[in-house]
Design goal:
2 copies of one chain form a homodimer.
Chain A: E1 7-12, H1 21-33, E2 37-43, H2 45-53, E3 59-63, H3 74-80, H4 85-94, E4 100-103, H5 107-118, E5 128-133, E6 140-143, H6 153-169, E7 178-181, H7 192-204, E8 208-212, H8 214-217, E9 224-226, H9 229-254, H10 258-278, E10 286-289, E11 294-297, H11 304-319, H12 322-336
Parallel strand pairs in A: 1-2, 1-4, 2-3, 4-11, 6-9, 7-8, 7-9
Antiparallel strand pairs in A: 5-6, 5-10, 10-11
C-alpha cells in the first residue's frame, strides 16, 4: 500500500554543486511521483518565486537573502547567516510548518543548523548521520558516517537504537538485524572502543548479531551496521571511490580493442543498470538521526534523481513518525542500560 | 637490472588454508623465477623432507613437530608451541640462517613470533603491517592494516617512516609521497588522533602531502597512506569485499540473457586480466615492518601465485636491506622529532 498522506517538506533550493537547477528538477519529479508531498522552498527570491508561481498550491516560496557556502565554517555560518536557506529551512521544521527538511548543501552546516535550531531529541547524546549502502542483497544502513569523529561506547549504543528505528520506519525492515563494524568476529577483537561497544550492545540492543568485518559488509547479511563517525566516513568514501575506480577499469578492459568495443556496446544497457544500482543517488540522502525533526542531507553532487529519492525518503520518514520512533527507542535504551 | 644475489628465505610450509600443497607450489615457482633464492622449509617432516630431497641444494628441510592453528591464541601459542613451523621459521631469521621469513598462517601468531623471537628494531614502538593496494595507477602502500587497533599520534609518525622505507626499498619509488587517511582534506579535520598525527607528520615526515580521503585512495595519487590499525584493517577488508561484490554484479549484469552471455564470452579474457590485476595475490603478502628482520605475512587464502609473489617481495626486501633502511629512517625520525 502506498502512503500518500499529505506531508510538507522544507527544501533548500540553494544547496549542492548543481543547485538550484537540479534541486528544482528533483522537486518537480517528487511532486509528480508522490501526490501527498508539498514543498516549502527556501532560497533566493528570483529562484524560489517563479518556481512556486508555476506550481500552484503545492510549492510555497520562502525567500531568503543569504547562502551558506561549502567553505564557510558550519557553526559560525549558522549563527551569523540567520536568513540563509539552510537556517530558515530548519526553522520551518522547528515551527511545525514543515514535517521534514532536505538540503544538499554543506553537511556540516545542515547538521549544525538542525542541532542548534531544531535541537536534539531528549536523551540523545549525539546525533548521527546514517546512509543506506547498496549491497548484493538489500541495502544496509551504516551509521555514523561522519557526524562524530570521536565516539564513546555509549554513543555507539544510541546509534544502534536510532539505526534500528530508521530501518523499520523508513526501510520497512521487520526485526532488523544489527552488527558492529569491527576487525574480527570475536567479541574481544578490535580497538578498546569496539570491545566496549560490543559488550554494551550485546546487553542492550535487540537484534544485535555481533561484529561484522568489512569483507562481508557488502553481502547484505544485516540491516544496520554501527561504527564511529571516523571509521564510517572513511568506509563510505572508500566504497564510493573503489566502485568508481573498479567500474572505470571494467570499462577500460571492455574497450581495449575494436572487437571488444563492439561486444561491449551490446552490454552497455545492463552495465548502466548496474551503475545506477550502485549509484548513491538512487538511495537518496543521508538522514541526520537524533535531532527533533526529520532532516535529510543530500550528497553535494546530488542531481535531480538524488533529490527526488531524498524527498521520497523524507516523506516516508515524516509519515512513519521517525522522530517519535527514535524518541521511543532511545528512551527504551536508556531504561534498559545501566543508569 | 635484475638483482639475483643469493638470499635465503625461511618458509612456513604449514601456514594457510591451502597448505602445504599451494605453499610448496609457490616455492617451486619462486625458485624457477629467481635463481638467487634458496629456501629453508619449516614443517612436518613428511612434508618438507620429500620436497627438499627433490630440489637439491636450493631447499633445506627444517622438520618441526607442531603447528599453530588459526584458532590458537597467538601469543600463547608462540610461547607454548616452541617447535612449530612459525616459531622455528622466525628463529632461523634471528640466528642469521635466513634473511627473511614468510608464512601464510595465523597473522597474529606470525606477528607474535616475529616480535618475541626476532624482536623489534631499536627505537620502534610498534611494528605495523603494511600492504600494497592495487589502484588506478601504481599500487599504494597502506599501513597499519591490523597490528595495532589503538594507536597514538607518534605511532602513526613511525608508521610513516617505515612505510616510506618500504616504498623506496621494495617498490623502487623515488621521493615517495605519503598521506594520512582522514575524513577531510583540511589539517583540522578528523578524529583527535588524526588531527594530532597530521600536525606531527607535517613537521617530521619528508614527502608528507597532507590528508587523503577514501574517495581518492584508489586513484593512486600517493605512494604511502598511513592510518591506525583499526581503520586500516576495516579499509582493507572493505576493499576486498566490495571488489568481490562488484565483480560478481558485473558478471550477473553480463549474463542476464543469452544474448548478453554470448557478448560477454568474448570479453572474458580481458575481464579475467582485470580480476588478476585487482587480485591481492599478485601483490604478494604483507610485510611486518619494525621487527629486526624481514617478515612477510601471506593472506590465509594464499595460492601458489600469492606465495610466489610474497617470496619475490621477501627476496627484494632482504637484498635491499629493508631492515637497515627502516632502522635508519626511524633513527632519523627520532632525532627530527621533539625529544
Amino acid at each position: 500500500v502506498t502512503d500518500s498522506r499529505p506531508v510538507s517538506i522544507a527544501v533548500d533550493a540553494m544547496g549542492g554543486d548543481f543547485a538550484p537547477s537540479e534541486v528544482l528538477a528533483g522537486v518537480e519529479r517528487a511532486l509528480s511521483a508522490d501526490k501527498g508531498i508539498s514543498v516549502l522552498l527556501t532560497g533566493a527570491a528570483d529562484v524560489v518565486g517563479p518556481f512556486a508561481a508555476a506550481h500552484g498550491t503545492r510549492v510555497e516560496a520562502v525567500p531568503t537573502t543569504e547562502v551558506i557556502e561549502m567553505a564557510d565554517h558550519p557553526a559560525t555560518a549558522v549563527r551569523s547567516k540567520k536568513d540563509s536557506s539552510i537556517v530558515v529551512g530548519t526553522q520551518l521544521v522547528r515551527d511545525g510548518r514543515a514535517q521534514a527538511f532536505f538540503s544538499a548543501g554543506s553537511t556540516g552546516a545542515a547538521m549544525a543548523a538542525a542541532t542548534l535550531v531544531i535541537g536534539r531529541i531528549r536523551g540523545v547524546q549525539r546525533p548521527a548521520i546514517a546512509t543506506a549502502l547498496p549491497t548484493m542483497g538489500d541495502s544496509v544502513v551504516l551509521l555514523d558516517v561522519g557526524a562524530n569523529a570521536d565516539c564513546r561506547p555509549e554513543h555507539l549504543v544510541q546509534f544502534a537504537h536510532m539505526g534500528l528505528a530508521y530501518a523499520s520506519t523508513v526501510l520497512g525492515r521487520v526485526n532488523p538485524k544489527i552488527a558492529l563494524l569491527n576487525i574480527g568476529e570475536e567479541p574481544t577483537k578490535g580497538s578498546q572502543l569496539a570491545i566496549d561497544a560490543h559488550a554494551l550492545m550485546a546487553e542492550q540492543v535487540p537484534g544485535f548479531v555481533g561484529n561484522i568485518e568489512g569483507r562481508v559488509l557488502m553481502d547484505g547479511v544485516v540491516d544496520v551496521v554501527v561504527t564511529d563517525g571516523f571509521t564510517g566516513n572513511v568506509a563510505l568514501k572508500l566504497l564510493e571511490g573503489s566502485s568508481r575506480a573498479l567500474l572505470a577499469q571494467v570499462r577500460t578492459a571492455m574497450t581495449s580493442s575494436l572487437w571488444h568495443k563492439l561486444l561491449a556496446a551490446g552490454l552497455k544497457p545492463s552495465l548502466s543498470r548496474l551503475k545506477r544500482r550502485l549509484d548513491p543517488d538512487t538511495y537518496g540522502g543521508a538522514p541526520l538521526l537524533g535531532v527533533d525533526g526529520v532532516c535529510i542531507i543530500g550528497h553535494g553532487s546530488s542531481r535531480a534523481l538524488a533529490v527526488e529519492s531524498a524527498l521520497k525518503v523524507s516523506a516516508q520518514a515524516a509519515r512513519g513518525d521517525l522522530t517519535g520512533q527514535i524518541r521511543d527507542a532511545v528512551t527504551r535504551g536508556r531504561s534498559a542500560g545501566p543508569q
